Amino acid sequence: MTNDLLLHVSFKAVEGKPVVLPGYEEFSFFIHDEDGSFIISEVTTGYSINSYYRNKTEAVREATAYLDLKGIERLREAIAKYAIMVVKK
Fold this sequence. Notes:
Elements: E1 17-19, E2 29-34, E3 37-42, H1 56-70, H2 72-88
Antiparallel strand pairs: 1-2, 2-3
């Protein structure tokens, strides 16, 4: 069964800034601008939590709502799974 919590299209180096998602302070996320849209990704895997949003506030709000819907345990499982995959490559 595929865990669709973290999204991956392709890896590329980006310049991002740390961002805190309310309720998920134990995790590390960063936000970056891609062609005028904002994306939030998890630091250890590089996988995005959400897709393209018009501004930082909207990106944080939507990423937090998405994680609230999926649940913190599912986030932990996805990070554990995908962090291993990223290191192996």
